[in-house]
Amino acid sequence: MKKEEILAKAQSEGRERDLPDREAQRSGAWVAYILGVVLLILVDTVNGFVLHFVNRGADFALFSMAFVLFLTKYLRLRKKHELIMTIFWGVLALSMLVVWILQLTGAL
Questions:
Q1: ∠ CA 96-101-105, rounded to 5°
Q2: pTM
Q3: CB within 10 Å: which end of the chain, N or C, has fewer?
């Protein structure tokens, strides 16, 4: 075997071992994100009932995460659906930022 063949074979073997690792990381990140959304909804609901006030700072952070996720997907895949979702989450994140700033200044 030539040097190039050995190198190509070693590189292809490395990719195969990397794939399950990347898939586990991706599914773990997805589960963590869903759990974060569920917990945030629970915290917002409890705060609304108990304190009669919901701080939108955490909502801003969560929506910003979704915005970055879809922006990254759009930049890699260039699909119309990803662009629409990027705009959707971006608008939600910006609106939560505005509400949060208004809450901090006492305007709300």
A1: 145
A2: 0.72
A3: N
